[in-house]
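In response to reviewer comment 3 from the previous cycle, which asked for concrete evidence that the modeling workflow produces usable outputs, we include below a single protein chain processed end to end. The sequence was submitted unchanged, and the resulting C-alpha cells are shown without manual editing.
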Amino acid sequence: MAYTKINEKEILTWLKENLSEERFNHSVGTAECAEELAEKYNLNKEKAYIAGLLHDCAKCFSNEKLKEIIDKHLKVEECEMLNYKTLHAPVSAYIAQKDFGVSDNEILSAIRWHTLGKQDMTTFEKIIFLADKIEPNTREKKYCSEIRSILTEPNGLNLALLRCYVETIKSLAKRELKICFKTIDIYNHLLDLKNVSDI
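The workflow returned the following C-alpha cells.
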C-alpha cells in the first residue's frame, strides 16, 4: 500500500492477532465505509481506507499499556485522560506511524481525533469520524441509516457529526462517565453551525 511500509495482507494479519474478532470486523467495516465516504466527498479513497483500517489498532491494548505509551511518547491533554475509552485514539496514531510506517499527516490526524474529534475538523477527519460510527459490520442498523440519511441533507456532514455528538454525550452521561470539555465545545460549535444554517 502506498501509505504504509507493509501490504494490506500483513496489516490484516496484524489486526487479527491484536484485536478481538468484533473489533477486527469493526475495523474492516470502518475502512470500507471510509472508502465509500471518500468517494462521495471526492477525497483520496486509499488514504481513507488505511485510516479506517488502522483507526482502532491500539483498541485492545490494556489501559496500563495505553497510559505507558502516552506517558513515554505522546503529548495528550489532561482532559483526554478522563475517560479510558478514548485513550486508544492517540496511541493508534502512534502505532500507525511507528509500526506501519504511516507518515501522511492527514491519515495520522484522522486516526488521532476519531474519538473525541476537534474543532474545525477537515472533511477527511470528519468522514473517518463518521465511518467509525456508521460502519455496517457492528453498528446498530437503525442508527446507521439515520446518519446516512442526514448526510444527504444540505450541510449534511456537520449535521451528521452533531447527531453523533448528541448520542455520545447522552451515552456518557447515562453511564456516569466523565466528559472531556472538548466534546462539549465541539457540540456547541456544531450546534452554532446548525443554527446559523437554519436562519
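The chain has one domain: 8-198. We consider this sufficient to address the reviewer's concern, and the full set will be provided in the supplementary archive.
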